[in-house]
Specification:
MetI-like fold
Length: 278
Amino acid sequence: MVKRRAQDIAVGLVVPVIAIGIWQWVASMGWVNENILPSPLAVWRKWVAYLLPMQDFATWHGNNPGGSWLSWATSGELIIDSLGSLYRVVVGFAVGAGLALPLGLAMGASRVVYAWMNPLVQLLRPIPPIAYIPLSILWFGLGNPPAIFLIAIGAFFPVLMNTIAGVRQVDGIYLRAARNLGAGGSTMFLRVILPAAVPYILTGMRIGVGTAFIVVIVSEMIAVNNGLGFRILEAREYFWSDKIIAGMITIGLLGLAIDAAMNKLNNYLLRWHRGLEH
């Protein structure tokens, strides 16, 4: 199992390594302006400077007066920005999913609730969270509250729609078998419908987390003064293209880590459904 995973990781790294190699070659040949597209090495240096705390840099530089490539000014902003973005994602997703899950279960299980709520849901669902930015600032001002509001909206609808689909698409064989065994309404919902809908719900949550991470970057460019989105916007104003790309790569790495964690959680919770032993 470990060997197979290592092989999968190695195969998955082939294309990124080739892409980085071509990128470095094009940059070293001088075919593009380095202010527009810096080389991977320049981005790596900026990423390290963005990551290292300032006090560590000062200590290192004092012991090495000759300096080296690490003599680039370090800020230590990356950890603070990443934690700020993750905080907003977690809180916003918790709010959005916490509201969507019970509503989705109710709409999926009850035709009456579905008939009442579905027109409003279908009206609001196509509106992108970005469109709520002016209202979010008017309602909540600046800072974390408008960002969390936008993230909650972004996470709400994927979780809601997948939950509704999961409840409404339970195999009729399960329902008939439960009725024949004398299951009542609450037992039917808790022991049959809800477990059968869990794969859909978890898929919705996985999509919702991804959407929340997209929305947090946009919201940080508008309403807050820290976070990865804010730092990318700041770098754009000063034309620091290496820092822009470093921030983008950080977003990708965090998104990859979150998706991998969600996938592992799904596999663990659904091992009974997929026949997984480990």
